[in-house]
Specification:
alpha/beta; eight-stranded mixed barrel; 24% strand; binds ligand C2E; binds magnesium ion; Diguanylate cyclase (GGDEF)-like protein
Length: 290
């Protein structure tokens, strides 16, 4: 154990364990501050339908740049928000911001679905569920709809309650997808029971698709499974043209990834969307002229 002096305070470190503990405490404290001040941003990443060539949706991804901690990524702070009970405030902020951004995103002329990531805790929280339902059905601009993404871990805590609650969302006409598919612990029988209409193949199986035979086999197997269960599939983490054409050949319905676009602030996402549609229009005209 070593005492380290920082300002007037002494911190006691044991191996690296306390380091990690200290960071967690700091993040949780600053998270509280960020929630109070709405100090987050939302980025949007386009999702392309390989069947129609249209941008069918965008995934909303939270970003947080703290004054003292700098940028903290969601993979680090979302689990801490869950542990500390702050996640419902984060989810409320995200849903509120998506509803504000919807107006602009729907203004480009074609229907678009914005997907929001939910945490396991959100699904088991009755009050939250009512808010999520209302947010997705009430007073959205024409052409814009909300969808929710859940992960398999959400189902581990209380599979029965999770299923009942997801059914309420589904029965309200809201689209649900299973995120990070292939990395969690849910059984195939659970998947069969769940009211989701889409699977998102986890990016860890997709990023190296062009060169990794095991990943190719896994992805083909997931596509087969999804077909049997009549679920549509989004492959996330598509980083190159080879992966995209493989997925297309195997009948994967949609893709998302750096090859298409990185997550962007809403103003950039709008410009990107307009450019994409303009190029697409030019290509259609080229095809019909020649
Ligand atoms: P996710 O929902 O699976 O989101 C996909 C992640 O993959 C995002 O990371 C995205 O930026 C990244 N990504 C997209 N395309 C590519 C690619 O081609 N290559 C690679 N290497 N990565 C790609 P991000 O934004 O850091 O988010 C990480 C995770 O944090 C998300 O995984 C989601 O589980 C969680 N998260 C993000 N925003 C929210 C939120 O608003 N609420 C909740 N509850 N969780 C969120
Ligand atoms: Mg997601
Ligand atoms: Mg994912
Ligand atoms: Mg993830």
């Amino acid at each position: 154990t070593e005492a380290v002096r920082a300002g007037q305070k002494f911190y006691y470190y044991q191996d690296g364990a306390d380091d990690a503990h200290l960071r967690k405490l700091q993040i949780t404290a600053r998270l509280q501050h960020a929630i109070e001040h709405g100090n987050f941003e939302l980025f949007y990443q386009p999702q392309l339908s390989l069947l129609t060539g249209e941008i069918e949706g965008m995934e909303a991804l939270i970003r947080w740049k703290d004054e003292t901690l700098g940028s903290v990524f969601p993979d680090e702070f979302i689990p801490l928000a869950e542990e500390s009970g702050l996640i419902s405030d984060v989810t409320r902020w995200v849903v509120g911001r998506v509803r504000e951004d919807c107006m602009a995103l729907a203004s480009t002329g074609k229907p678009i679905e914005i997907s929001i990531n939910l945490s396991a805790k959100d699904i088991l929280d009755t009050e939250m569920l009512a808010m999520l339902t209302e947010a997705a059905v009430k007073d959205l601009p024409a052409g814009c709809s909300l969808a929710y993404e859940i992960t398999e871990t959400a189902l581990v805590a209380d599979a029965h309650a999770a299923r009942e609650n997801l059914l309420l969302l589904k029965n309200a006409g809201i689209h649900l997808s299973m995120d990070d598919f292939g990395t969690g612990f849910s059984s195939l029988s659970q998947l069969k029971m769940l009211p989701v209409s889409k699977l998102k193949i986890d990016k860890s199986f997709v990023m190296k698709l062009a060169s990794d035979c095991d990943d190719q086999n896994i992805v083909e197997a997931i596509l087969g499974l999804a077909k049997a269960l009549k679920l549509s599939v989004v492959a996330e983490g598509v980083e190159d043209a080879t992966a995209m054409s493989m997925l297309d050949n195997w009948g994967c319905q949609s893709i998302q990834g750096y090859h298409l676009a990185r997550p962007m602030p809403v103003t950039e996402a709008l410009v990107w969307l307009e450019n994409y549609r303009q190029k697409e229009g030019e290509m259609d005209r080229d095809v019909s002229n020649g």
